[in-house]
Specification:
By secondary structure, the chain is of the alpha/beta class. It is built from five helices and seven strands. Strands 5-4-3-6-7 form a five-stranded mixed beta sheet. A two-stranded antiparallel sheet has the order 1-2.
Length: 164
């Protein structure tokens, strides 16, 4: 569970090209969306990733960045990124350590996907790294829409990257 709601925990995770990426490097002083997804096995997760890919250029135009995280191995994430043509980095939290710090629920479903796998979560950080929005789900359905997230970034664009 997030202990400090103002500034979420930093991390260093391998991306889909096996390069270690840190939250600070990925944020690079811009509003950032952290999208935790169930994994490459999940059709709902693939749909959501494609929806974010569709708005990615608008999200970048609004000054933001997007990073997606799952428990999949970097090689699996690379295949997923190539298959879907995703323009944003995918990070591997194979041991669930970062997901746990962010309060991501472990799925209790035992019939689909690798175990454990996390349920979806969306976090939006402002230019200073403050948490301005979070939604952690206990199942795969009902996430904030990519367009709702885009509206938050557009609002921050008019406030020099800050939400308040």
């Amino acid at each position: 569970m997030l202990r400090n709601l103002s500034f979420p925990p930093s991390f260093a995770l391998p991306d889909d090209n096996c390069q270690i990426r840190t939250l600070n490097e990925l944020r690079a002083d811009k509003p950032t969306v952290l999208l935790f997804f169930r994994g490459a096995f999940c059709a709902t997760a693939r749909r959501d990733l494609l929806c974010y890919a569709d708005i990615y250029e608008r999200l970048r135009w609004a000054g933001g960045e997007l990073v997606a995280v799952s428990i999949d191995a970097p090689e699996e994430l690379h295949r997923l990124s190539e298959t879907l043509g995703l323009p944003f980095p995918l990070l591997s939290d194979a041991d669930f350590a970062v997901s746990a710090q962010y309060g991501i629920y472990v799925s209790d479903e035992t019939e689909a996907g690798p175990q454990p796998h996390g349920e979806p979560g969306t976090f939006v950080l402002d230019i200073e790294g403050r948490l301005i929005f979070s939604q952690v789900q206990s199942g795969p359905k009902g996430a904030a829409s990519p367009n709702e997230v885009l509206l938050m970034l557009l609002y921050m664009q008019h406030n020099e990257g800050r939400y308040w």
